[in-house]
Specification:
Layout (H helix, E strand, L loop, with lengths): L24 E6 L14 H15 L4 E6 L7 H5 L7 H25 L4 E5 L8 E2 L2 H9 L3 E5 L9 H11 L4 E6 L4 E2 L11 E2 L1 E3 H6 L7 H9 L4 E5 L5 H6 L6 E4 L4
Parallel strand pairs: 1-2, 1-6, 2-5, 3-4, 3-5, 6-10, 9-11
Antiparallel strand pairs: 7-8, 10-11
The chain binds uridine-5'-diphosphate (UDP).
Length: about 260
């Protein structure tokens, strides 16, 4: 375990990144907040294009990428229905899932505008908008080098897209689940509120659970722990970091069964 000042995040080293990737297939979880300007809501296509370019750069290393997309920039079911008796909580969650589809459509066009092929797959059927998510079809698209965007979460209410990301990583047999966040990794406390928060470089699932660290929701952590799916939490706002992450560069925080 290292503290933040031991972390090397040298942007100038990007030209020296090793070619290729140690991974065959990754699931990349992008929160809705990566689709809007910090502190704002909705969709900023500048932000989406930034993420799209990074994702395409990462895919150019030959790694298969499935993106699981959040919707929190538009609506989260639990907070939308809290104290709001006119909308049932389950309805709010379905609204949240639809929000992820709006983001998925924006990301699809953004990625294609920078020259890569994509497929948008939704967990609930939306004929005319996107393909339905079918595991074998998703794998086939990945094998053909398409960036696959997975929207509508799991298709079921009362969970989040973190859980969807864990589930898809497992069923698509990804080598690693990468969670892109706006901070450098997993900290001992909220780094946006506590300047003394310590950044961890390696954690076990057990430590995450025991210390209640903010990585992903509890269901997602449990699923990854049960099936030994490693999770890398890293900062998407630093240019080329998605590419660094897929190239195996040691950035962010790695959560796995055992510390190195
Ligand atoms: N959601 C859901 N089931 C899922 C995934 C998402 O009901 O399998 C709903 C839930 O209300 C969630 C919202 O969709 O709050 C948006 O997803 P999330 O909060 O995970 O987005 P993020 O925080 O990643 O932007």
């Amino acid at each position: 375990m290292y503290v933040e000042d031991a972390v090397t995040t040298d942007v100038s080293s990007s030209g020296d990144m090793p070619a290729g990737s140690p991974y065959r297939r990754v699931v990349l979880k992008l929160s809705g907040e990566s689709f809007c300007r910090p502190g704002e809501r909705g969709i900023s296509m500048d932000e989406v294009l930034h993420i799209a370019r990074q994702t395409v750069q990462a895919a150019s290393r030959g790694v298969e990428i499935a993106v699981v997309i959040g919707g929190g920039n538009i609506l989260r079911g639990a907070s939308f229905t809290a104290g709001n008796t006119a909308v049932q909580e389950a309805t709010g969650h379905y609204m949240g899932m639809l929000a992820t589809v709006i983001n998925g459509l924006a990301l699809q066009d953004a990625i294609e505008s920078v020259g890569a092929q994509t497929r948008l797959l939704t967990a609930t059927r939306m004929d005319g908008v996107a393909e339905p998510y079918i595991r074998r079809r998703a794998r086939r698209h990945l094998e053909k080098g398409r960036i696959v965007i997975l929207a509508a979460g799991t298709g079921s209410p009362f969970v989040t897209t973190d859980t969807a990301a864990a589930q898809r990583a497992l069923e698509l047999e990804a080598d690693i689940l990468m969670k892109a966040t706006r901070v450098d990794g997993v900290y001992s406390d909220d780094p946006e509120k506590n300047p003394h928060a310590i950044l961890y470089r390696d954690l076990t699932y057990q430590q995450v659970r025991e210390q209640n660290l903010r990585v992903m929701d509890v269901t997602a952590i449990s699923q990854c722990m049960e099936h030994a799916m490693p999770i890398l939490v890293f900062n998407y706002r630093q240019d080329r970091n998605i590419e660094r992450a897929v190239s195996g560069e040691k950035i962010g925080t790695l959560v796995s069964a055992r510390k190195d």
